[in-house]
């Protein structure tokens, strides 16, 4: 236990050291290039009358090829590793190691009809009287309506319970819960899960989320056609509003959904905004807590995890569960209205992700997440170095020097930023084209990342935040139906 605690505390330092080592190696390789030192400026005229100073130097071809080869090798290595882990889980027939692998879960139900797929929705809610009406309206307006909807009211001091009952849905009130959302859901699942059959799907969705029409219909189709499928996660988009800060978050979410679509639905995280599970998957997690995966035995959600949704994803993957995030299953979720609330949210997300991989250690199921955190750590160093060098260059030179090679790479970078948010509309494209606001937003997230590493290393107590919502307008209610 002591070794695991030490490793969990040191996980941020391990990532930081690995990313720093990679950055230092690249720096040394570039510094060793004789063409990388000194300026060879020339002067010219643009349009025949605009004077410019430029430098045509570029890294040696061997350096460029080495950088490209390294990037391709790393990407291919991660993809191959993820593919091998997935294939190993699919082929496993060991019920003790991977009780949720397709071969194991399909064997006892082969040739047995478990009845039509039904859906029961659990909505954890803490003082969500303002946002709950939109959530329930979107849920009850689905083309495939759920058989049951249960609002899990956790220590509510407002009218959340009354609002839920006005919509005619069931209410489960937590009792003396001190472990936030995860604890409330554990109480509800212990009461509710034993009576669920193989095809009685359990959906967990946040009380500040609005389902797009067709979500349940498509997800139910997936579960009906694939008996080995253990979970379906939603893809989320940001709500409208909150000015440039809101648009920055919407751009971020559009890029994430695009990446999942390019991965053909392979899951990073079964998001808490809206995810669906087979009861067998949740039972297997509860049974293996404290045995092969972290957590208290008998709990579905690990109450020690800051990001319980990310942790549950790791648990299901560690047990061999098959899951997907189809592009047809989309939701609209809340955005943080201020930098203060965004800071608190992202610090919890980032710290939670690091703590989760620290709790699980380096395993086949977590290798992809270790690589992802290493990539984030490296990008923190790269972007910070770029911004500092740009600032020093501006302060040190009398005349601006143009570097066609690097500006060409910059143009490719900007084009990728614009294309990756194309589905977000014209506002998203313009913001990506301007570039600087998104770079500053990325720097903000980098500071959050570093703060998370410091807090984990020093063992500081993490905190949750709750965003107060304004009551839904009649237009918002109509749009959700």
TrEMBL record:
SUPFAM superfamilies associated with the record: Nucleotide-diphospho-sugar transferases
InterPro entries with a match to the protein in the record: Glyco_trans_2-like, Nucleotide-diphossugar_trans
Keywords for this protein: Glycosyltransferase, Membrane, Transferase, Transmembrane, Transmembrane helix
Residues annotated as signal peptide: none
Transmembrane segments: 6-29, 60-81, 376-395, 431-450
Pfam families named in the record: Glycos_transf_2
Listed PANTHER family: POLY-BETA-1,6-N-ACETYL-D-GLUCOSAMINE SYNTHASE
Protein's UniProt name: Glycosyltransferase family 2 protein
Naturally occurring in which organism (per UniProt): Cryobacterium algoritolerans
Lineage start: Bacteria, Bacillati, Actinomycetota, Actinomycetes, Micrococcales
């Amino acid at each position: 236990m002591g070794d695991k605690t030490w490793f969990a505390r040191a996980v941020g330092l391990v990532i930081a050291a690995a990313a720093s080592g990679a950055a230092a190696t690249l720096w040394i390789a570039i510094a060793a290039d004789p063409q990388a030192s000194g300026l060879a400026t020339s002067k010219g005229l643009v349009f025949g009358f605009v004077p410019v100073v430029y430098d045509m130097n570029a890294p040696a071809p061997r350096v460029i090829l080495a950088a490209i080869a390294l990037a391709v090798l790393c990407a291919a290595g991660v993809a191959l590793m993820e593919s091998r882990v997935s294939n190993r889980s699919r082929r496993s027939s060991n019920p003790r190691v991977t009780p949720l692998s397709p071969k194991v879960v399909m064997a006892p139900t082969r040739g047995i009809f478990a009845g039509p797929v039904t859906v029961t929705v659990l909505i954890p809610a803490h003082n969500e009287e303002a946002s709950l009406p939109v959530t329930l309206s979107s849920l009850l307006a689905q083309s495939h309506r759920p058989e049951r909807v249960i609002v899990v009211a956790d220590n509510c001091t407002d009218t959340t319970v009354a609002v839920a009952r006005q919509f005619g849905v069931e209410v489960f009130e937590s009792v003396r819960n001190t472990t936030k959302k995860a604890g409330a859901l554990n109480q509800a699942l212990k009461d509710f899960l034993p009576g669920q059959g193989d095809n009685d799907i359990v959906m967990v969705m946040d009380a500040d989320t609005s389902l797009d029409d067709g979500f349940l219909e498509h997800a139910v189709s997936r579960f009906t056609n694939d008996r080995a499928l253990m979970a379906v996660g939603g893809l989320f988009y940001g709500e409208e509003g909150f000015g440039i800060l809101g648009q920055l978050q919407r751009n971020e979410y559009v890029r994430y959904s695009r990446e999942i679509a390019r991965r053909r639905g392979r899951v990073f995280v079964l998001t808490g905004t809206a995810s669906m599970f087979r009861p067998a998957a949740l039972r297997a997690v509860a049974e293996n807590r404290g045995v092969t995966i972290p957590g208290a035995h008998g709990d579905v959600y690990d109450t020690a995890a800051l990001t319980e949704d990310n942790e549950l994803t790791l648990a299901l993957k560690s047990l061999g569960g098959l899951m997907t995030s189809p592009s047809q299953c989309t939701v609209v979720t809340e955005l943080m209205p201020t930098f203060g609330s965004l800071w608190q949210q992202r610090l919890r997300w980032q710290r939670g992700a690091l703590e989760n991989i620290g709790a699980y250690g380096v395993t086949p199921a977590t290798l992809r997440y270790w690589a992802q955190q290493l990539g984030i750590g490296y990008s923190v160093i790269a972007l910070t170095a770029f911004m500092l060098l740009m600032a020093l260059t501006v302060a040190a030179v009398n005349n601006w020097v143009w570097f066609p090679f690097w500006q060409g790479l910059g143009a490719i970078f900007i084009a990728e930023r614009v294309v990756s948010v194309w589905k977000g509309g014209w506002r998203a494209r313009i913001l990506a084209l301007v570039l600087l606001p998104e770079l500053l937003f990325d720097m903000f997230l980098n500071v959050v990342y570093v703060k998370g590493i410091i807090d984990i290393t020093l063992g500081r107590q993490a905190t949750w935040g709750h965003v107060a919502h304004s009551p839904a307008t009649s237009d918002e209610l109509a749009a959700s139906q």
